[in-house]
Design a protein that fits this description.
It contains 3 helices and 2 strands. By secondary structure, it is mainly α.
Length: 185
């Protein structure tokens, strides 16, 4: 299956609509909300706790929020990177598969074309040989007929010559056959 730019763009849309990207955005939203709530928390802490403990607790809360946000961002980045690499691997595999299938199709077409040419050459050679054989047969038949006709004419000529050499036929003198004057054409 060949992949197009639209397929790759669709895959990228899937990645941006995936949980890791949303988790990263959610971590940013949580961090923003936490920072917005910080002044109110400070007010509550001041009420609930003595003012001298406030700086230490605030620092701890900020550090804890930063650590959690950094962990969420790193986790989201790792998952997003894995998804991109997986998509690239699948796309590369699809391209290689398409190239292999296309190469196979071209080779198959070349093989079929070569076979068709060889078959046509074989049929043409057979037709030529058949025509030569028939022509040779016709020539031999014509030669045989001509030879038979020649032999028949020769036999007829010989019998005519023998008949003319006999002076008498049934005791009577035979008259000479009239000769025709030859005219040149």
């Amino acid at each position: 299956m060949a992949r197009t730019i639209d397929d790759v763009m669709a895959e990228m849309r899937k990645l941006t609509n995936s949980k890791p990207v949303h988790a990263l955005a959610g971590a940013g939203v949580l961090a923003t909300r936490t920072l917005k709530d910080l002044p109110w928390r400070l007010v509550r802490w001041t009420r609930d706790n003595p003012p001298n403990s406030l700086p230490g607790r605030a620092t701890g809360a900020v550090q804890s929020a930063q650590t959690r946000a950094t962990g969420a961002v790193q986790s989201a980045q790792t998952r997003a990177t894995g998804a991109v690499q997986s998509a690239q691997t699948r796309a590369t595999g699809a391209v290689q598969s398409a190239q292999t299938r296309a190469t196979g199709a071209v080779q198959s077409a070349q093989t079929r074309a070569t076979g068709a040419v060889q078959s046509a050459q074989t049929r043409a050679t057979g037709a030529v040989q058949s025509a030569q054989t028939r022509a040779t047969g016709y020539v031999q038949t014509a030669r045989a007929k001509a030879s038979d006709s020649y032999d028949t004419l020769a036999a007829h000529g010989k019998s005519t010559a023998d008949a003319e050499s006999k002076p008498e036929l049934n005791g009577k003198a035979r008259a000479k056959a009239p000769t025709r004057p030859t005219t040149s054409k």
